[in-house]
Amino acid sequence: MKENKWKKFARYYKPYLGSFAADMFFAILGAAVTLIIPMVVRYITGTVIYEEPDKAMKDIAVLAVVMIALVAVEFVCNYFIATVGHNMGAKMETDMRTEIFDHYQKLSFSFFDNQKVGQLMSRVTNDLFDISELFHHGPEDVVISLIKFIGTMVILLNIHSGLALCAAASLPFMLVFAYVYNGKLKRAFKRNRDRIADINAQLEDSLSGVRVVKSFGNEDAEMGKFQSGNNAFLESKKSAYKIMGIYNSGMGVFTTLVTIVVVVAGAVFLTNKTLEVADLVTFMLYINNFTDPIKRLVSFTEQFQNGASGYERFLEIMNVEPDIVDDKHAVDVGTLQGDISFKNVMFHYVDTDTNVLSNLTLDIKAGEYVALVGSSGAGKTTMCSLIPRFYDVTSGEIDIDGMDIRKMTQKSLRRNIGIVQQDVYLFAGTVKDNIRYGKPDATDEEIIAAAKNANAHEFIMQLPDGYNTDIGQRGVKLSGGQKQRLSLARVFLKNPPILIFDEATSALDNESEKIVQDSLEHLAKNRTTLVIAHRLSTIRNAKRILVLTEDGIAEEGTHDELMAKNGVYANFYHIQGVTA
Ligand code: ADP
Ligand code: MG
């Protein structure tokens, strides 16, 4: 299992092996250069200055050029690591983001029923960024640290093993300090992230609910909630800065302490005449190479933990199998006639055992207009979601034109069905964009025709920019009735043979309801239509009314037949006190 996980991780490097190789090459070269420069200094201070003045001058000039060239190489290496490495990480992050978004699109309703949108969003943003950092900094830091540390150790042991051991002896203390404080820092940063997430959540809630906030006059209370989150973030940041202060200055002190140890021990060895001044200078120049790997390795462990936990959260999502997938032999059904049959359908949602529908058997003929009534929670919406396969039946089957819908591709099945619900979801963008959603390649003429059919053309023409008017996030700039008519225009354009209206007019005022009802009836012509109605007055004229109860279809018939029966339907009718 574990191996598998990291094998999968390695797969993301595959398209970028060239960049990865270049990144590693420059990391190795850059680290090697930092090992060479002090050796040149040693040669100058230990050998060149004791040569004949003329030759010494010449050599110094040559070596100065060599050192400048080495620094230039180091610059180029660092530049490439920063660009090639980061670009590679960013590309891999983009690939993963595409992959997770694609996966989200494939997941079923049952998955989204149980998730918070904010968390699904952070998988795609923050978590992937952490992984991206790990992708390139991880291998770079490990390679650079190993080369610098081992290289320095070998060189120093060769120059003077006693002094090299003294210098190395102080490193474990530094390592422990760095490790402890890095852990504290990591936890502090995690607290910062949690606090900012709280602020985001609070902000999202208050801003989305701004109309409720204002209507209740609760601005002060919202301010209070926000302020406490804001202060908590400040406190968290202050404590993080305190830890960061100790960490950074502590690491500075340790570096100086290593220097002091080297100077003191070096002075002793100088007095004993076992060490040359040039060697001591060389040692001093290597101290950074000694301490840098510690900082890097410690920051690598932090990056690794962040990246790995982000990666695990990413895998958690990627490993969710969609409940509803196309059968291997699924066919594209083209355009359906619209005969729908439910055969002994049983259904319950995954998280409960109680059946919402049991033994539902029902035939709807192509072109028929059928109304479905039932008390709230009876399962009307559920029954409708089974037709486009938003959920699969627990047992039994649903056929359209005599074919089990599980044998059709989901795309071709859903292409044949238009759904209009009470809550209209419109996307940010213009009126035209939203109507075109029903048929992406529609011409402007088709869009206008659809709008006219949906009784929407007139009000659209009165908007400031007509069809090009921006409707705001989720259509906030439109009235309920206008939004519903746009959603109908969208379905007119899609032109499906099967329609489902799920309480499409129940949120509307009487006047809008009449207009929308008129459009709905126009849309329903020559299509198989299943209407769930909240107000019985809107379905009085339906030739066939089904009454859904917990025990399935309890009654069916025309309004007059059902009233004569004096059963469940008649009872509903009396409760509503409908006179129309
Ligand atoms: P209706 O549309 O007739 O009012 P629904 O089909 O919406 O009824 O709901 C039928 C039952 O299924 C209710 O008890 C409801 O709580 C439950 N239910 C609806 N949607 C879900 C869901 N996504 N997950 C779990 N239970 C659900
Ligand atoms: Mg419902």
SSE blueprint:
Layout: H1 2-11, H2 17-46, H3 53-106, H4 109-113, H5 117-124, H6 126-159, H7 161-169, H8 171-208, H9 210-215, H10 219-271, H11 277-318, E1 340-347, E2 357-364, E3 369-373, H12 380-386, E4 395-400, E5 403-404, H13 410-415, E6 417-421, H14 431-436, H15 444-453, H16 457-462, H17 480-494, E7 498-502, H18 510-524, E8 528-532, E9 544-549, E10 552-557, H19 559-565, H20 568-576
Parallel strand pairs: 3-8, 3-9, 6-7, 7-8
Antiparallel strand pairs: 1-2, 1-4, 4-5, 9-10
Helix pairs in contact: 2-3, 2-6, 2-11, 3-6, 6-7, 6-11, 7-10, 8-10, 8-11, 10-11, 15-17, 17-18, 19-20
The chain binds adenosine-5'-diphosphate and magnesium ion.
Magnesium ion binds next to helix 12.
Protein model, in words:
Helix 2 (17-46) packs antiparallel against helix 3. It is built from 20 helices and 10 strands. The chain has helices at residues 2-11, 17-46, 53-106, 109-113, 117-124, 126-159, 161-169, 171-208, 210-215, 219-271, 277-318, 380-386, 410-415, 431-436, 444-453, 457-462, 480-494, 510-524, 559-565, 568-576; strands at residues 340-347, 357-364, 369-373, 395-400, 403-404, 417-421, 498-502, 528-532, 544-549, 552-557. The radius of gyration is 36 Å and the shape is elongated. Strand 7, helix 18 and strand 8 (528-532) form a beta-alpha-beta unit. The two termini are 66 Å apart. 28% of the residues are buried. By secondary structure, the protein is of the alpha/beta class. It has a domain at 1-158: ABC transporter type 1, transmembrane domain (ABC transporter transmembrane region fold, Up-down Bundle), CATH 1.20.1560. Bound molecules: adenosine-5'-diphosphate and magnesium ion. Magnesium ion (MG) is lined by residues 380-381, 502.
